[in-house]
Amino acid sequence: MAQAPLVGIIMGSTSDWETMRAAADMLDTLGVPYETRVVSAHRTPQRLHDYAESAASRGLKVVVAGAGGAAHLPGMVAAMTHLPVLGVPVQSKALSGMDSLLSIVQMPAGVPVGTLAIGAAGATNAGLMAASILALEDSALRDRLIAWRTQQTDRVPEVPA
Ligand code: RP5
C-alpha cells in the first residue's frame, strides 16, 4: 500500500508544474510521500479553503505552495492552517518573478510563510526543507538527507574541468 502523503505540493496553475516538479523530484529522491494539487487562490477559492482547512487533519505535515504573479496562494494557505507553509515564487513572464517573490515574502507578523528563491531552485529547496522538517522526527529520513548532502558535496570538483 502506498504511504500516506506527508507533504502537500500545491500550485496556482498547471503552468506552475514545470517549476514545482523540482520539489516533487527532491521528495522522490529522499523517499518522502507527497501529493500534488492545483489550487488557485483566485480561480478556485473554495478549493483553497477546503484544502487548507483539512490539510492537518488529513495527515499532512508540511505544505509547499508555488504561485506566480499576484501570488496569494502560500499566504492564504498559511492563514488557514498551523502547518509550516513553504512558498515558492514562480518566475512570471511579465516581471521575472519579482512580483511573485514580493507577494509571497512580505507576510504580516503572525502568519509566516517560509519563502524560497524564485523558480526551480526555490522549488528544489522547498522539497529539501520539507524533508529537513520531517527528518526532525524520522531518523531514517535524516540519514537519507545527510547522505544526499554528502553526495552533493562530493560532486563538487576542486579544479574546474
Ligand atoms: C498564478 O498565475 C499561477 O500561480 C501562475 O503562476 C500564474 C499564471 O497562471 P496561468 O495563467 O498560466 O494559469 O495564479
Describe the structure in your own words.
With 161 residues, this protein is α/β, with parallel strands linked by helices. The protein has one domain: Rossmann fold, CATH 3.40.50. It has 6 helices and 5 strands; from the N terminus they run βαβαβαβαβαα. A 5-stranded parallel beta sheet has the order 2-1-3-4-5, sandwiched between helices. α5 crosses α6 (139-154). 5-O-phosphono-beta-D-ribofuranose is lined by residues 12-13, 15-16, 40, 67-69, 90. 5-O-phosphono-beta-D-ribofuranose binds next to β3.
The helix-strand sequence is EHEHEHEHEHH
Label the structural class.
Answer: alpha/beta
**Cα-atom Rg, whole angstroms?**
16 Å
> Which fold name fills CATH's third level, the topology?
Rossmann fold
Mean residue pLDDT: 98
Tally of domains: 1
Sheet with the most strands, sense and barrel status? 5 strands, parallel
**Topology, number of strands:** 5
What is the first-to-last residue Cα distance? 46 Å
Q: What fraction strand? A: 15-25%
CATH A-level architecture: 3-Layer(aba) Sandwich
The bound ligands are: 5-O-phosphono-beta-D-ribofuranose
Count every helix, treating DSSP H or I runs of 4 or more residues as helices: 6
